[in-house]
Amino acid sequence: MSDLAPSKILFVDDERGLVETCTRHLRKQGYLCLPAYGIDEAIALARAEAPDLVITDLNFPERDGFDLAAYVRAELPGTPLILITAHHSSVSETAAAQAGFSGYLRKPFTLIKLSQTIEKVVGT
Amino acid sequence: MPYEAYFKSAAESLLVVDLDGRIVDVNAATEPLFGYARNELLGQAVEILLPERLRDRHPQHRAKYVSMPRSRPMGIGMDLAGRRKDGSEFPIEVSLTFAHSDDGDYVISAIVDISERLALEREARRNAILSSLGAVAAGVVHDLNNPLGFISTRAELMLSDEELSAQARDDLREIHNHAQRASRVCTDLLALASHGPTKRQSLNLNRIVDEAVMLVSGELRRDNVIVRPDLDSALPQIEGDPNALGQVFINLMLNARDAMPEGGELRIVSAPVKNRPGWIAVTIKDQGTGISAEALPRLFDFLYTTKADGHGLGLWLSRRIMREHRGNIEVQSEPGKGAIFSLSFPVAGAK
Question: Which CATH class name applies to A8-122?
């Protein structure tokens, strides 16, 4: 972490319990964490807050994590993205990388793994 | 005579038996099937070819057949088995033909070894059970995974609170460990459910090992297990599914941990296989309680476990994953002397 303003992380998942746990964990780690529970809400937050990192689940009822990635790549170029997938998801790391995700988390993940993935992606 | 030629060269074993149950003639296929030479069988009671447990009642069956002879398959639904000269048994199918000729009456039995067919049927039945089990498992696991993930991450979050009492910290650790364990059962069941070709990519085995070690090292350290990797940095790439292989290494490391309740050292070595060009191997060696001679041959069996709280899926699944990678998994162990699991893989592009 830099000495300047803390990194702003947008965390998107429709599982409220998971979002709350991860948000609290990331705040404890010194990040400024913005929770969102759907893609439209996430896009609105991304537009307003210009996060430094976006972590999103893949599956949502309507639009999915790839739609959010497309928005971020177009409107906030250079912002790193981490994809969360269900354990049995058929989306491979390679497919995620092609969609612009530089990190990949498979559920269930531990908070340590979450932190490690963030560190790997932002290169701290 | 075409009949004679048929008798001599038929693929099934043919026995000509007189009404007293003596073997009068056998064809060539009979010799390798039962392990006797033709002249060892001629004149013998046909019961010589039966397992001892079936011998006593066989003369009765013969008498009944002769009293009402017709061509028919023998003993549908009965336990039909042949016995080789060396005493080994094999399942057979027999059809009987009553032959009336000028020089007397005979029964001709045609015998086919059905071990292979039975094995295929068993395999098919097993696969059918597994795939329905898989479908059920996938549904249940899907619903269980999220709440389990919630429990373990929330416990993890609470553990980062420095003001916790020692008791609360222990309790949370237990909750976390148990939720993780339940989660692993789910993961194994899901892997079981998701058959079909795995996603292949070119990968460096050392990286998979490193990631697996990173994932479990915290847990192992708590149980006083020290992981000592010794990875050959010049290892060539292999083709494989990183998640599936990661699962194998995690399974083996956690098993090693379970085998070392007092803690100990876990050595993980990657290297080319000696005397086998084009193959590389990872060996995982623990200092645990070792594996008994009885358990050793069954270790990779479906639902076989030596642990009180085991579910018998981990090693079975590991072997399945290794087979999908055209690799091998082997174990050497003696009670009290630890265990060595060796995983060998063909190098990408190697034959």
Answer: alpha beta
The whole-angstrom distance between B180's CA and the closest CA on chain A is 9
User: Which domain range does residue B221 map to?
Assistant: 198-351
Domain boundary residue among B147, B173, B195?
Answer: B195
The percent of residues in chain B predicted with pLDDT above 70, rounded, is: 93
Is the pLDDT confidence value at B207 over 70?
yes
Compare CB distances from B146 to A15, A93, A110 and report the shortest one's residue: A15
- pLDDT confidence tier of residue B78, bands split at 50, 70 and 90: low
Residue A110 sits at the chain B interface (C-beta within 8 Å): yes
Cβ pair B190:A106 closer than 8 A: no
- Put simply, the answer to whether B156 touches A111 (Cβ < 8 Å) is yes
Q: Closest to B152 (Cβ–Cβ): which among A25, A87, A108? A: A108
On the 0-12 / 13-18 / 19+ scale of CB atoms within 10 A, B170 is exposed
CB nearest B150 (choices: A21, A25, A88):
A21
Name the 3-class secondary structure at B271: strand
Measure the CA dihedral B198/B204/B206/B210, to 10°: -70
Number of domains in chain B: 3
Task: Give the pLDDT confidence of A91-105 residue by residue, as tens digits.
Answer: 778 888 888 999 999
Residues A23-51, mean pLDDT to the nearest whole number: 95
pLDDT of residue B90: 94
On whether any CB of chain B is under 8 Å from the CB of A22, the answer is yes
pLDDT one-digit tens code per residue, B290-316: 999 999 989 998 778 888 877 788 898
Of A86-100, B62-76, B334-348, give the range with the top mean pLDDT.
B334-348
- Nearest residue to B154 (alpha-carbon basis) of A11, A33, A111: A111
Q: Could you tell me whether strands B339-346 and B328-333 are parallel, antiparallel, or unpaired per DSSP bridges? A: antiparallel
Residues of B in contact with A88 (CB under 8 A): 138, 142, 190, 193-194
Choose the final residue of a domain: B65, B92, B113: B113
Mean pLDDT, rounded, for A11-26: 94
Are both B221 and B343 inside the same structural domain?
Answer: yes
| Contact residues on chain A for B148, CB-CB shorter than 8 A | 108
**A3 CA: distance to closest CA in chain B (Å):** 22
What whole-number distance in Å separates Cα of residue B303 and Cα of residue B301? 6
DSSP, collapsed to helix, strand or coil, labels residue B1 as coil
